[in-house]
Amino acid sequence: MNPNSAKWDDLKMFLEVARHGSVHAAAKRLRVDHSTVCRRIGRLESLLAVKLFDRSRKGIAVRREAQGLLKHIEQMDRHAGHLEDAFARNKGTTTQVVRIATMEGIASGYLARRLPALGQFGPNIKIELVSIPQAVDLNRKEADIFLSFFNPDARGLKSALFGTFSLFLYCSKDYLRRYGTPRTREDLDRHVFVGYIDDLLAINAVRWLDEVITAPVMSFHSNSIFAQCNAAVSGLGIVLLPTFVGEGVLGLQRILSDKISVQRDVWVSVRTEQSHLSRIKAATQFLKHIFAHDVDFLLGKTSKLPVL
Length: 308
Prior knowledge:
Blueprint: H1 8-20, H2 23-30, H3 34-48, E1 53-56, E2 59-62, H4 67-91, E3 96-102, H5 104-114, E4 125-131, E5 145-148, E6 157-171, H6 173-179, E7 192-195, E8 217-221, H7 225-233, E9 239-242, H8 243-246, E10 253-255, E11 262-271, H9 278-293, H10 295-298
Parallel strand pairs: 3-4, 3-5, 7-8
Antiparallel strand pairs: 1-2, 5-11, 6-9, 6-10, 6-11
Helix pairs in contact: 1-2, 1-3, 1-4, 2-3
């Protein structure tokens, strides 16, 4: 059979299975049935007379003899993305979706509150904001942009430092009435804390409480930073929160803010091959603008998010 008769839909199936290392994940990404992916991969293998994948308990890997084909399909996919971007620019009214992935706190506590400013940079851009507790693989197209508290420094990614935020200790007045107000770092040894579930942390950068106190007495654990915040409001303990989560929460107040604070950088990453696309440029310009505009709030120098 003539290899040139291979259909783009079938090649796309091969590309997504190669990216995700799983038929199920590829099917979910392409919004088709698992059986459809298997059928089309089988058809492509028969057409090309080449076995494309090796299957093992660890997943699916592209065979060595299929690596050259994969590179050609990846190039075709890049060109398809460029064409899609050009058509959208020419049409002018087409909505372009940009998926941004990051941690729960900064997604819900900060970015979601700043989205109205996006129209200044891309009036036809729509953001899909994904709150996720682990690193995102942009090369598998799990998102278009990844905001992280560390430099991913991964092959195929273009990453830049966009800002810094501070974390402070917060607790309720009720807690202070019961336990007293700590005046020094040493006083914290006599207090109780709320924080993350240690064995569920996939990102070391959020182990920020470790920088404040060694072996803290914990009264509550949660993988949700907002659950931690609410537990502190109820008086369960002291919590270490970013400004964009802790500031303005009724019932919480900062303690030891002149003595204890923790900083984290915010890195913005995109796939190098997508960095020039208009929708990606618009979204990254928006992010760069808000982090620069809100620097005093993010560092805790002011307690209110400023007007844009």
